[in-house]
Structures are given as C-alpha cells and as structure tokens.
Amino acid sequence: MKKLLVSLASSVLFLSTAVNAEVRFDDLSVLSQSQRDAYTVESIAAMNQQDLEILYASLDSGSMPEGEYRGTVVFDDSESNEIERLLAIVSPYGHLESIIKKLGVSIWKGKIFDNQTKSLTNRIGFLKQYPAHVFCGQSLLDSRRESIVLDYNYADTLAHYVPLVDWTMTRKGLGIRDEIRMVHPGLYLGRAYVKGTFALNFILE
Length: 205
Prior knowledge:
By secondary structure, this protein is of the alpha+beta class.
C-alpha cells in the first residue's frame, strides 16, 4: 500500500506540466466585506474552476480558524487538472475516479483547528485523523498575498501523529499541502495539493 501511494504521487509529479506554475491575477483586488458576505457554501460549490480561482485570488488569508469546521469538497473536473488526467490513465472508464470521489465526499467531514498548537486534525467519519501544521505562507496559486497553509508533510513532528495511519498524508506518502483564504468570518475557500500539484477545492464553514 505504501509503495502504491508513493508511486501514484510520483506519477502525478511526472505527468504535471505546470507544477507550481503561478497563475497571475494582477488586475484583481481584494473584495470588499459586503461583496464577500454575499457568498455562501452553495454559491461557491456551484462555481466552475475558473471562477473559483478568481474568487480565491480576490481574497486574503483573513483570521486563523479555530475549532471545528464542516467541510465540502468541490472537485475540479477541468481537462487541465493533472489528478483527473492521472485517474483517467489508471482507470479509463472512470470507475476508480468515481470510487475515490464518493469515498472522499462520504467520509471526510471537515477539519478541527487548534490555534494553541498551531495544528489541525481532520474529521474522518467519527474519527480524528491526519494532523497538519497550520501557518501563514505563500500561496501556490496567487503569490501576491499570503494564505493560511495546512501542511501535512512534517506532521510526524506533532504530538497527536499516529504513524500507522497518518503517514499517508506526509512527505513519505502523498505529500499533501492545503491552503485556505477567508471568504468571510466562519467561511473559508481552500485548495488541496498532492506533491505540489493541484488536486481539488474545498470549503470550510
């Protein structure tokens, strides 16, 4: 299992033609508070990928989240998504992609933030798994402003790390790195990366 995950992550790196390539949004400024307040989970989830990226680039990091947030996955089905292309190669008829998406939506419930330890854990069903470090850092999409980075790569330095399970998200596995920006208090838009390659969007509320 470990070798398979590492192999898939390496394939993503190999296939990607634009890893860490910056999309430029020079003409976009930060939205006003009244403009931000108009957005809801439903309206964001209904956006296409281009509009999601424009919205993300029109936000700033905002305040650090604290406590438990419910999660909503928003998949990028565009042809440029490298993860989608990899899954299409591995499973041409879409069976594997369908299974992964259904599992992701059904078992991932959200994230629990602890500002005291500057870390988080994920709510997977009724369990708390997959810790990550939380800090402000440069966005992989829009470097003009910082995002809140959720970094799983060195989660093995956290006290609540469980090696048997949590290694899959670290540098030894998929190398997951998320980043989020605040839409308005209580609502965040996020982007998930596998080994530096964009994978999917998510919303926290």
